[in-house]
Every structure is written in structure tokens, then in C-alpha cells.
Design goal:
The chain is an alpha/beta fold. It has a domain of about 120 residues. It contains 14 helices and 11 strands. Helix 5 links the parallel strand 6 and strand 7. The longest helix is centred in the last third of the chain and has 54 residues. The chain starts with a helix and ends in a 5-residue tail after the last helix. The relative contact order is 0.13.
Length: about 450
């Protein structure tokens, strides 16, 4: 190889250095940005719930009850959105509340009437809203009308199955009238159709019926049975004052049958409001979907409510969930209003990852060239720092053995500079630094002072 070729190769090799990227510098520059973005994404994923399940479980009531029939309506509506609703039967409100509060029972949501939470922890339960009135209908057999619970003293009473809201409320109201278990009054744990049939056959003198234990056809049947009356509670207002979870309700004259005028007068009854109660870990998207379903089922006018009265964020024994508050105040989110449920859920979760990328990573990447440039210049400045310190030492007219050591240090600086990976944008600074090293060596090697 000729000397000319060697010189050409020698001149080309330094140029190759300028096309090289220092991956260490690049890692130091980009690494923190990527790490921060990753932390934000992981944190967002941690706090934002995963995809909503496509199956949820609701606990309702006994066969034929209003609770069970309502759950079946929910089931059909939720199926349209690709969510399967599994229905568990129960003894009623008290049983529902206990199972919702029991972590070993696989249930997500259930119907619970007001006034049954005494002695039961409800800290991990939330309400998605009140959904309908539940009147207490007390049917009794008597030749003369009665208008007070005290008139049932000493009789045989069917007060609903144990575990039902009917049973719990009946005991509370009877106790307020001095009627308690073990006294002259016989209290039987019969509910629904069994209680109605026992009343018709004369096995009991009165039956307490509510939506969590009886179906409307049973109640209508009793209204048409000769000798059986519906208790018209004269003290209804007093009960609502004494027990805040109760409401006064009215069955207007003739509302069940205009032709036969059933009932023949306005009937005043009392009853709690039923809440749709859920565990506090219910997925927010399912919370919205359940409230929307409740609006479709309970939003119309009926015998005991105005159109649009339910569902409503009425806070009684259970705190309204934050998701429910947001839904009642502003409705569903944009994606859930305009996209199918499954697609809206997918888009909603995708945003969890896109937002940190758009907010942090993309603007940060625009700063990478500046940060990388600062990193490269800092290495050049570091070499200048060493060179200046060495130059000052040379000014002190050191001894010969010290001069040799200083020249060696100068060679070390030059070696360090030549090993640098340098982008083309910094070629001028690179060559200036090399020239300054050569200048210091030339002055010092010639025996002069720097």
C-alpha cells in the first residue's frame, strides 16, 4: 500500500467517526423520558380499572316476586349491550344485603329496600340510586274495617319469610305497636303465595306482603277475595315521621278496577324505597350501564310514581357511588353515548395509554436532539477542563520528570478525544479541540512555555 493511500485512509477514518451515534449518550438522554412515560402509563393502568367483565350477577328475590321480575327485565336490556346478567334468587332484601356484604358470595349488585341495614356493615357497599317504591300491603280477614296495626294484636299473622324485607319491616312496625314474638300474637314466617293462600284458607288472619316476597297478581287476587280487606293505615303520616326510610303512598279509589271500583276508597299505605345496591368495586362502565338500564325499566309513570322520578340519587343508608353521582349530573361519557358498549370500553381504556404518550413522550422526543447535543458538548467541555488544568500546571516550569508525566497526561486527553463518537454537527468543535491539544503539545515539546 503506497504512502498516499495510507494518508487517504488516515484522513477518511476521522470522518467516519462523525457519522457515529453514542448509544450511551442516547440512552442517558432518552432513557429518563421513556422511564417517566412508562411509570405514568403503569400508574394510569393501576388506577383505571381494566376492561369491564361481560358477565355480572344480581341477587333479586323469591320466585314470582317483584324483585325477580325486575331482574329479568334488566337481563334482557343488558343482553342488548353484550353483557350477561346472572340472576340469583333469595329470600328478599335482608338476605340480599347480607350476601352483598359477604365476600365469599359471588354477587355484584342487588335490590335492597330501605330500613333493613341495622346491625349490618355497609361500608363496602354503594347505591347506584333509588329505583322504585315498595308499598307494604297488609291484607286481613275481618267483617269490619281496621285502620291501625294495633288491631292485629292477638291474631295469627303471616309476616314474610325470614331474610325478607317484609319480615324485617313487619317486626319493626308490630313492635312499635306493642306486638312482639312470644306474646299473644302468633307470628308465622310465611310470605308470597304461601301467605296469600293461608289467608284465603283461613289459616292466618292477616298477611304482610311486599314486592320482595310477592307478585302483583297475588295482591290483586286478594283484593277480589270476599271477606279480605287491605289495611288503610290512618297513622301513615306518623309512621313516616317515626321511621324516615318510610314513605306514605296512596292507592286511589278504583285504581285496580274502575268498573268494580276496587278499592272503593283511597287506601293509604306506607313503604320504603328500594335501592340498587352494589359492591364498591363494581366497574364504572357497568355502573353506567346499570343506571341506564334502570332508567329504561323504572323511568315511566306507574301507579305509585311520576315519569322520570326513578332512578334517583337519593342517599339513605348507602352512600351514592362517585360513578353514579357523575352519571346523574352529566350522563354517560362521550364514547359510551356514541359507540357500542364493547367498543366504547376498548376506546376508553386505550386512551389510558395514549394520553401519557401524547402529553409526555411526543413533546419530550422533540427535546431529544437538544438534550443529546448538550450531552455531547458536555463531554467536549470536560476534555477542555482537563486541558486547561494541565496547561496551568505546565506554566509552573516543572522539573524534567514532571514534564514527562504532563506529556503523558496530554496524550491521555488526546486518546480520550479520538475515541469519542462524534456526530457531524459537532465536527467543528471536535477539530478545534484537537487543534488546541496539538498547540499545547507543540509549545511544551519545543522546550518553550505554554
Amino acid at each position: 500500500m503506497t504512502g498516499k493511500n495510507k494518508n487517504n485512509i488516515t484522513s477518511i477514518r476521522p470522518l467516519a467517526r462523525f457519522s457515529e451515534i453514542s448509544f450511551r449518550d442516547l440512552a442517558v438522554t432518552v432513557g429518563p423520558l421513556v422511564l417517566i412515560t412508562a411509570v405514568v402509563i403503569v400508574t394510569a393502568y393501576w388506577y383505571v380499572r381494566p376492561a369491564p367483565p361481560n358477565t355480572i350477577t344480581i341477587i333479586s328475590g323469591p320466585t314470582g316476586s317483584v324483585f325477580l321480575r325486575t331482574a329479568e327485565k334488566y337481563q334482557k336490556i343488558l343482553a342488548r349491550n353484550g353483557v350477561k346478567l346472572q340472576i340469583l334468587s333469595s329470600e328478599g332484601s335482608v338476605d340480599n344485603l347480607k350476601k352483598l356484604n359477604d365476600p365469599t358470595v359471588r354477587v355484584d349488585v342487588g335490590f335492597v329496600q330501605g330500613g333493613v341495614s341495622a346491625g349490618i356493615s355497609v361500608e363496602k357497599l354503594v347505591s347506584l340510586g333509588s329505583v322504585f317504591h315498595e308499598p307494604l300491603a297488609v291484607y286481613y280477614r275481618s267483617a269490619v274495617p281496621m285502620d291501625r296495626f294495633s288491631g292485629l294484636n292477638g291474631k295469627r299473622l303471616a309476616i314474610g319469610r325470614e331474610g325478607s324485607g317484609t319480615h324485617a319491616l313487619a317486626l319493626i312496625l308490630l313492635k312499635a305497636n306493642g306486638i312482639e314474638p312470644g306474646g299473644a300474637t302468633t307470628l308465622m314466617d310465611l310470605g308470597g303465595e304461601d301467605a296469600a293462600q293461608a289467608l284465603i284458607e283461613g289459616k292466618v288472619d292477616a298477611a304482610f306482603l311486599m314486592g320482595d316476597s310477592a307478585a302483583p297478581p297475588i295482591m290483586r287476587k286478594l283484593m277480589r277475595t270476599a271477606g279480605i280487606r287491605l289495611l288503610n293505615i290512618a297513622q301513615a303520616d306518623a309512621y313516616t315521621r317515626r321511621f324516615p326510610y318510610l314513605n306514605k303512598l296512596v292507592f286511589p279509589m278504583g285504581v285496580f278496577d274502575f268498573d268494580e271500583n276496587i278499592p272503593s276508597q283511597d287506601i293509604h299505605v306506607i313503604g320504603p324505597i328500594v335501592d340498587l345496591v352494589a359492591r364498591d368495586n363494581l366497574h364504572p362502565a357497568l355502573s353506567d350501564l346499570l343506571i341506564e338500564t334502570a332508567r329504561e325499566v323504572h323511568g315511566r309513570a306507574s301507579l305509585l310514581q311520576r315519569a322520570g322520578e326513578f332512578p334517583a340519587p337519593l342517599e339513605h343508608e348507602y352512600r351514592i357511588s362517585e360513578e353514579a353521582r357523575r352519571f346523574y349530573s352529566s350522563g354517560k361519557g362521550f364514547f359510551y353515548r356514541n359507540l357500542p358498549f364493547w367498543l366504547a370500553s376498548l376506546v376508553d381504556r386505550t386512551l389510558v395509554f395514549l394520553v401519557p404518550i401524547v402529553v409526555l413522550l411526543i413533546p419530550g422526543l422533540k427535546m431529544v436532539p437538544k438534550l443529546y447535543g448538550w450531552r455531547v458538548r458536555s463531554r467536549i467541555y470536560r476534555c477542555y477542563g482537563k486541558l486547561i488544568a494541565l496547561e496551568r500546571s505546565m506554566l509552573s516550569n516543572a522539573a524534567p520528570e514532571e514534564r514527562e508525566e504532563m506529556l503523558k497526561q496530554l496524550e491521555d486527553i488526546e486518546t480520550e478525544v479520538n475515541k469519542m463518537k462524534m456526530p457531524l454537527a459537532f465536527a467543528d468543535q471536535f477539530y478545534v479541540l484537537r487543534d488546541h491539544i496539538s498547540f499545547v503539545r507543540g509549545r511544551y515539546s519545543s522546550g518553550g512555555t505554554v
